[in-house]
Every structure is written in C-alpha cells, then in structure tokens.
UniProtKB/TrEMBL annotation:
GO cellular component terms attached to this protein's record: endoplasmic reticulum membrane; plasma membrane
Membrane topology label: Multi-pass membrane protein
Catalytic reaction equation(s): tetracosanoate + ATP + CoA = tetracosanoyl-CoA + AMP + diphosphate; a very long-chain fatty acid + ATP + CoA = a very long-chain fatty acyl-CoA + AMP + diphosphate; a long-chain fatty acid + ATP + CoA = a long-chain fatty acyl-CoA + AMP + diphosphate
Protein name as annotated: long-chain-fatty-acid--CoA ligase
SUPFAM superfamilies: Acetyl-CoA synthetase-like
Keyword Transcription regulation annotated: no
Gene3D superfamilies in the cross-refs: 3.30.300.30, N-terminal domain of ligase-like
Amino acid sequence: MIAVVFSSLLAGLLALLLYQRMAYPFLWVDLIYYFKLRGYRKTLQARMQKGIVTYLDCFLYQAKTNPNKPFIIFENRTLTYQVVDRRSNKFANAFRTEGSLKQRDIVALGMFNEPDFICVWLGLCKLGCEVAFLNVNIKAKSLLHCLQSCGAKTLVVGAELVQLVEEVLPALKDNMTVWVVDHTSPSEDFSSLLDKLEHVSGEPLSDPPKVDIMSNFLFIFTSGTTGLSKAARVGHLKAIMSMAFLQMCGATSDDIIYITLPLYHMSASLLGIGGCIHLGATCVLKKKFSASQFWKDCVKHNVTVVQYIGELCRYLVNHPTVPEEKAHSVRLAAGSGLRSDVWMEFVKRFGKVKIREGYGLTEASIGFLNYTDEVGAIGRASYFNKVQSLSMPFQLLRYDPQTYEPVRTDSGRCIQAQIGEAGILVAPLTAMNQFLGYAGNNILSEKKLLRNVFKAGDVYFNTGDLLLHDYRDFLYFRDRIGDTFRWKGENVSTTEVSDVLGLLDFIQEANVYGVTIPGYEGRAGMAAIVLKPAHKLNGTKLYNHVVKTLPAYAWPWFLRIQTSLDVTETFKQQKVKLVQEGFNPDVTQDPLYFLDVSKKDYVYLTLTLYQDIVSGKTHL
Ligand SMILES: *[C@@H]1O[C@H](CO)[C@@H](O)[C@H](O)[C@H]1NC(C)=O
Ligand SMILES: *[C@@H]1O[C@H](CO)[C@@H](O)[C@H](O)[C@H]1NC(C)=O
Ligand SMILES: *[C@@H]1O[C@H](CO)[C@@H](O)[C@H](O)[C@H]1NC(C)=O
Ligand SMILES: *[C@@H]1O[C@H](CO)[C@@H](O)[C@H](O)[C@H]1NC(C)=O
Ligand SMILES: *[C@@H]1O[C@H](CO)[C@@H](O)[C@H](O)[C@H]1NC(C)=O
Ligand SMILES: *[C@@H]1O[C@H](CO)[C@@H](O)[C@H](O)[C@H]1NC(C)=O
C-alpha cells in the first residue's frame, strides 16, 4: 500500500518536473536571480537600518569594518580602505578651510584614473558637494560648455589637464576657483592642493552634512547622438542601486577586480568602484586601458573579475596572442555592449571566463542583467523580475517605424508591444525610479519623458532603445533608435551589418550607416572600415561574404577605409559626421569603394563613378 502511494507520488513529482521543464524551463534561474535580488534587498534594508543609505555611507562602513583590506592597487601602490578614508578626510578638510566649500556646491572634477580621483571625490562627498565628472579627452570648447551647463563654481583638475584649463581660463576667470591636484601650482590662476594636505587633519569632519537620499549625487556627461554633451543628474538612489551590479553578477568580497575604464564614466565609478566598495573587495585600477598589458596585469595581480565595455573586448580579441592570456585566473567578466561575434572569440581565446552582460542607462534607473546562458539576450522579463520592486519596472511600447514615436490610440494612450515585436523601452517614474533630468536643460529633459501613457497623468522615461521580448521571456536589444535606416522599403540594422562585417579576418572595426543618394528613397548602406594591421582589403572576399550573409537591402554599397576610428568618444558621435560626408570622393581623403555587382567586387570609387551614381547613370 505504502509502496503504491509512494510510487504514484513519485510519478506525480516526475510529471510535475517534466511539465515545469517544458512550460517554464527557466524557472530555476529566474528563481535563483529572484532570491539574489531579494537577498540584496534584505542586506540593503539591514544596512539602511544601521544608517547606511548612500554611496559614501557604504564606503565608510567598509573603512570601519575592513580598515586594513586593500581597496585600490594602482601601479606599485596599495591603498587600504582606511588609507583612502583618511586621505579623503584630508581633502575634505582642505577644501573646507582653503576653498570654503560647503554642502550643495557643485564641483567639476577632471582627472585621469588614479587613486586621488577617488580620494578627492570621496572628500567632496564628505562635504556634501555634488561632483560633475569631466571627460579628460574633451577639447576646450566642450570644457567650457560642460562647466557652464552643470553650474560648477569650483574646478579640480589633475596636473595633465592644466594646459587645457589654461585655454579656457580667460572665459572663466571671475567665476571659477581652479584647483590642481599637485604640490605646486603652475600659475597664480590655480591653487595647488596636495601641499595643503600636510597641514590639515585626517580626522572626519566634526559636523558631516545630512544627506537627502532623494537628492542629486553626481553629474555625469552623456554623449548624446548629436551636439554637445549633456549633464545628466545621478541621484543617491541610483548610485546605491548601481553598487549591487558586481554582486548580482556573482562577485564576492574575495575578488580582485580590474578596472581599466575611465572613472568619469558611470560604469567605472558607480558599477565598478561602487560595486567593489559594496562588496568590500579589492580593485586594481589602471590609468588607461591597454590591450597589451591587460592579461599581464591580470596575472601579476591575481585578478579574478574584469569589467568591460564592448569596444574593450574587441581590442583584446584583435590583439596578437600573449602567453598570459591563458595563464590568468579571471573567472568573470561583467559589463555591457559585447557583440556576439566578439563574445565567441573572447571565450575561445581567453579560456573559461563567465560573461555577465548587463544593460543600463546613465539617466534613469533601469537595468537588466544577462544571468542565463542564452546567447544574445540581455536579460529576462519573467514574472519574478516584474514583481520585484528592486528590479526596475518597464514596458515595451509599439512605435511608428517612420518617426520612432510611440503609437497612440484614438483616446491618446500608448499600446504595449506584443511578444515577438520590437518595442520602445520605457520605465515608469516612481519614487524609487527617478529621472532627475539634465542640468540647465528642461526642454531636453522633458523630451525624454512620455506622459499619459496608460492612464491620465502617468509619466514614463523613454530610453530610445528598441527591445524585443520573446515568448520565453528573454529580452533582446534590437536597436538604439537612429541606429537603423531604411533602404528599398526595408529596415536595416546597422549593428547587425557591422557584426557581419566584423566576422571577416581582415576587418578590425566596421561602423555602418546609411547615406542618401539623389533619386533614391531612404539610405544606401555604407561602412567605414578599419583594416587589421598588415591586412589588405580583399574586395572579392568581402563581396562574397556580404552577398552570402546579408539580404540585398542590407548590403553596404559603399566602403570608406579609415586608418583608425576616432576613439575619443563613442561610435555614435562619429557616425553623425560620417553620414554627413557621405560617399563623395571630393569631401574625404579616405579611399572609397563601391559594390559593383557585375564585377562581383568592391571597386575603387573614382570621381567619374561618383558622378555616374549621383546622375543615375549607374544604378544601385
Ligand atoms: C613606484 O613607481 C614609481 C615610478 O613608476 C617610482 O618613482 C617609485 O619609487 C615606486 N615606488 C615604490 C614604492 O616602488
Ligand atoms: C559668470 O557669472 C556671471 C554672473 O553670474 C554670468 O553672467 C556669466 O555668464 C558667467 N561667466 C561664465 C564664463 O560662466
Ligand atoms: C597571487 O597568488 C599567488 C598564489 O596564490 C601568490 O603566491 C601571490 O603572492 C599572489 N600575488 C599577488 C600580487 O597577490
Ligand atoms: C549572456 O551570457 C551568456 C553566457 O554567459 C552568453 O552566452 C551570451 O552571449 C550573453 N549575452 C550577451 C548579449 O552577451
Ligand atoms: C520596419 O520596422 C518596423 C518596426 O519594427 C516594423 O513595424 C516594420 O514592419 C518594418 N518594416 C519592414 C518592411 O520590415
Ligand atoms: C581574396 O580572398 C579570396 C577568397 O578567400 C582568395 O582566394 C584570394 O586569394 C584573396 N585575394 C587576395 C589578393 O588576397
């Protein structure tokens, strides 16, 4: 009798398991992630009860509990949590006594990656100042724009930036106090900072400011697709939530985390350094990413976790083999923007490294994490993720392919995109999900918002990204709006085309866009290409590859061979310029090629051929 009950129980259990596997194959990974998020929220709540609610609190907590743990390893120096704490106290005291800085003052910080970037920043946090991170590669004109748009009255720069600041000094002089992180000052326009540290105390401020966690923490300049950069406000809440990133990816306090990305970007300062502080882990900080040093550094410092962006991985796989690339103990790579072709090459070459791909934005609190092993997916949209208050709520909206505006019904409401249909990713604004806007630009801020989306009065942040939610609840990144063009009545995804081009052995980098031709609707595909060192363009091979792998409407009709893609900023910015220059041989010195179907080859684009195309004599 018992045996019968038992066996039918077993059969029932088996049926249940089978059902679960078929109907909900990702139940376990979803659940595990859900419990991780819940665990994280519990930790956060427990810490909040102890008064640890901000990025700075979190750092102070580690400095108190793990004072002697190495925090930053930089070149041949190791700074413990306590050392960084004391040094940032000194900066705070120096800024207060010598610079009269106080809570709410906005301070622009322009430094290359080095420990004092973090010490100065934390020092300013201790005073309650809002720090604006400057891109160290900017030119004088943008520097002036950045300073004015965020409203900073104090500027702190590293010694390398003195020359740049001198260019804009005449325009700033009366309004700006300028500090240089050095022992001496280059001229009377600058105040030196490091010599002041000798005379001030390393003790904490006696009266630390009270911080409103709903207020602004940082300004980060985002490089929009056009025009000058915008100062996005990053709130305290967003900062503390970002600190969970590395933990969610599976990093622990024992990890040694290698950070080569510039600290003025949110990924490095909030996800990377913040993630490291959250865990109480050690960070190996690099002044600048170097493909040749990357694996050597990883071996030298026993690095276990690396943080990446897509471009960085591409540089690594394009770099000649070094013995260290297989001898390291890196087990996890966490970041965003990795394309599938590079990813495959990455794991093939560099051994068993787990990749955790995330998606996040500077301006709003929305993020996904690729926590399954599905190639190409950026995250999950399962039931558990949606009900979680910590994971960020979102919607995908149906949009008009011509204008990229959400489609509205007769009553003015938006429509949810269906499963399997790409939609615009939007996130409701709530107390936990703030959008603090861009400094000094209300019109721009308002443009990122959608109102009356599902009901009167609701407000959503429009990410401008197209995502697809498939029937298994995976989310796929489809396009950043503007990264598609239309040709012969079809949509061409530029990322898809550059992925395909990137598979060829002689192509190092491909930037794909559409150019207009008189007499044609839409835009014809064009690719700016950088060849690998010591490689030549093989037109027939490229032709065959393109024809074999891409539909005719997506073929790049024009090529532009560049010696390097301008790496100062993102691909997006250069694209605008490339599109404007088009395929006119009179406008650029770069060699241009044209896809000649009759010759089954890419042929040199002469001025005569250009004129034939423009006049319609040669057809596409
Ligand atoms: C660290 O390296 C710098 C130059 O790279 C050198 O001047 C300094 O003496 C070194 N410090 C130690 C402790 O080795
Ligand atoms: C300096 O401040 C004045 C008044 O606050 C303002 O009108 C002017 O635009 C500022 N100049 C610069 C270069 O920021
Ligand atoms: C790296 O690990 C090895 C063996 O575990 C150890 O001997 C070495 O001291 C470590 N190096 C550093 C820089 O921590
Ligand atoms: C997500 O992670 C899996 C396994 O780590 C990987 O195969 C896949 O390529 C990742 N997705 C992206 C978009 O990187
Ligand atoms: C182009 O893309 C939009 C949005 O995904 C879609 O609605 C439209 O049908 C597509 N057009 C073609 C021809 O595929
Ligand atoms: C171009 O590629 C084709 C096919 O891969 C090869 O047969 C040919 O030799 C190559 N031409 C040159 C000039 O390298």
